[in-house]
## 1
Amino acid sequence: MATTYKLIDSVTVGSGGAANMEFTNIPQIYTDLVLKISPRQTANVNSYQFSIRFNGNSSNIYSRRQLMGYGAGVDSQTQTNTSSIFIGFDQSSSFTANTFGNFEVYIPNYTSSNHKTLSADSVTEDNTASVYGISLVAGLWANTSAITSILLQDISGGSNLAQYSTAYLYGISNA
Amino acid sequence: MAATYEKIATTTSSGGTSISFTSIPSTYTDLQLVFVGTTGAGICQVQYNGDTASNYSSTLMWGDGSSASSQRYTVGWVFVIPGGVNDLVVQRINIQNYANTTTYKTSIARADISTASTSKSAQLWRSTSAINRVDLISSGTYGSYTATLYGIKAA
C-alpha cells in the first residue's frame, strides 16, 4: 500500500530570526495537508497572534471561530473579513526562554475549487502564572483557488519569528 | 522507512444518515477517521461493531464564536451540528489502541464548521472487543461528503 502521510517540506528559522516561514510550490498531488508548527516571536508584546495566509492573498476574505482556555476561564470569539487567519498564540520574548508554541493545522481538500477550511489546535505554556493557553480554531479562506503556498507569521505589530522556530508541512493522500 | 499511516478505506457519497467502515483489519495501532462534507442539523455520534446498547459516553467542549460550553453525555457523541449551516464540516476522530481485547476503547474527536463552531470531544465505548466496524451516525441527513479511515502503526 502506498505511503499516505509524507513530509513535503520543512522550515527552521535561523540566527537573527525571520519575518515569516513560507511554503511555496506545494505539490497538488495530495488530498489534505497537515502543518506542525513550533513558533516563537522576537518582540515583547501582549497580543502574540500567529497567523496563516494562503497564496499570498491579503484580501479580507478570511474568518474564524475560536475556542480558548487560559487557565482562569474559557472564551469563544469570531473574526470575519480579516487578511489572514489567527490560528493561535505564540510565545513572545517575555516568555520563559527556550519555550515555543505547539500547533497542528489540518487543511482538507486543499486543491479543490471550494472555499478552503482548516482546523487548528495550539497550546502555549511557559511554566509561569502569566502566559498560557490552549486554542481550537475553525478557519475559512473564502477563495476557490487551489492552495499553492502557505505563509506563517506573527501579526503582532510585525514581530519576527525567533531562531529555532520550525514548521513542517505534510501531505496526506487517500488515493 | 516503513509506512506508518495508511488508508484503509474511503467512501464518497451523498445523503443518508450513517457512514460505515466494516471489516477493519486489526493490524494497526490506532485509527483516524477523517470526514469532510456537509450534514444537516443534529447530532453526530460514533458507534462500534454495530453495538447499539448503552455502552457509550462522551464529553464535549465547543465554542460558537461568542460563547464556550462543555457538557457530558451518555452516548458517543462526537459533534453537535447547529442548524442553519450549510458549510463544510471537518471532523477527525482518533481511535486509540482499537484492536486490543483487554481495555475499553477511547477516542478523541475534533470537529469544525468554520462559519459556526469549533469543538473537541472525548468518547468511551465500554467494551473490550477489538473494533472491526465504525459507524458515524448523524441525526441529520448527510450532504456530499468524503470519509476516509486511516490506520496508524506504532511499529
Note: Residues 113 and 144 of chain A are 5 Å apart (CA to CA).
## 2
Amino acid sequence: MTGEVLTRVMNLPFFAGLTAEHLRQLCEEGRAATYRPGERIFAEDGAADRFWLIDTGSVALDLRVPGRGDQIIETLVARSVLGWSWLHPPYRWQFGAVARERLDAIAFDAAAVRNRCDADPAFGYAMLRLFTPVITERLHATRLRLLDLYATSAQVGRP
Amino acid sequence: MSTSTAPAVAGAALPHPYLVVSRRVDTDDTVTLELTNDVEPLPAFAPGQFAMLTAFGVGEVPISLSGLPSPADGPARRLTHTLRAVGAVTRALYAAAPGAAIGVRGPFGTSWDVGSAAGHDVVIVAGGIGLAPVRPVLQAVLAERSRYGDVVLLVGARTPADLLYTDELLRWGAADVQVGVTVDRPSDDWTGHVGVVPALIPNARFDPARSVAFVCGPEVMMRFTARALLDRGLPASRLRVSLERNMRCGVGWCGHCQLGPLLLCRDGPVIDYARAAPLMELREL
C-alpha cells in the first residue's frame, strides 16, 4: 500500500518540500479512500483522527447552524489538503466535511503521523512546514471573504 | 499593450443622445442596457473602454462596455452597458425603460487589446460586477475561437443571486470555455463552489507560459488573483487589470481619476499588472 500511495503523491507540488525519506515515512501512514457524492467524511466535533489529500473530486466544509441546518462555508478541490484539526489538541473537527461528488483521496492516519512527529523532530518540523502554508492560505481566504469585497454599501452587514 | 481610441477632444464633452432599445434585469440591482443612436453614433468602442452615461437632470457616471456590438447593427453600433444601482445616477439609469433617452460620451480609455492574446491561452478572472467589463473579451475570443488556445473564465460573486449573465455562463461552459464559479455566501440550494475566486486558479487548466490574463473586480480581489496567477508562472507583463477611480472628463483634463503618474480615464482603465502593482499597493497617493 505504501508504494501505491507514494506513487500517487510523489509528483504533487504539495509534497515537493519533503525529503524522499520523509515522504516515504508519511506515505506509510496513508491509505486510498473513496467517498460517494453526498457522503459525510467527518462531522463537526468528531475525533480528528485523519487528514486527506484530495486526488479528484471536491469537498464542502460545513457548519451546523441552529435553525439553518448545515451551512457550507468553503469548498476544497483536487490537490487540496482536507483537515488540520488533527495537528493540535483537542484533536476534534471544528467543521464538518461532505463529498460534493465522487471523491478519491489519500487518507492519512493522524495519530500515527503525530507519533512519528514526536519520535523524530526533523520529521515533525517537516510536517509543520508542510501544513503551515495550508493554514495561512485558508486564513487569508477567510479574511478576504470577511472584507465582503463585492458588497454595495447597501449590502454591507447583510447576509 | 492596451490601446486608446479616445474621441476627438472637441466633442468629448458633449453627450450624444442614445435611446434605450432593450433592458435586461440581471440581478436585483443590476441591469444591462442596449443603447442606439441611428443618426450620429459615436466611434466604435473596444472591449475595456468606457462611456460616460448621463441620466439627464441627475448626473453622469463612467460605465464600461459590457458587450460587443453585433455586425448586424451596422453603423448604428449598439452600445451594451451593464450597471449596478448604487447611487442617484445609477439608480436613474437602472430605471431607464426602452425608449428612454440617455446621454453618452466616449469611447474613453484603453482597451483590453484582446487580439494581442491570439495564439495564447486566455484566462479571464472576474469578481462581482467586474464580470461586465470582461464579457466583451470573452465574446471577442469566442467570435474567433480558433485563434486562441484554452479559454478559462473564473467568476466570483457575493451570493448566487448576485451572479451576472447566468444563462451565458451555462452557454459558455458548453462552448469550450472552462467556467469556474464561486460565491462567498451560498444559498441553501447552491451546489457550486464556495470561497474566493483566486482559489480556483491552481486547478484551472491553462499553460501559464503561453497565457494572457484579463482580471477585473475589486482591487483587493485583483491583487490576490494576480498573486495566484504569478504563482502559477504567468508573467506580470501578460496580466492585465482594469482600475477604476473617479472618472469625470474622460480625456485627462480634470485630474479626478489620477493614480500616481496615471490619469486612469486616459491611461487606463486597462493597464498591465507590472505597471499597476506598485500603485495598487500604496496606502495613499
Note: The longest strand of chain A covers residues 69-76.
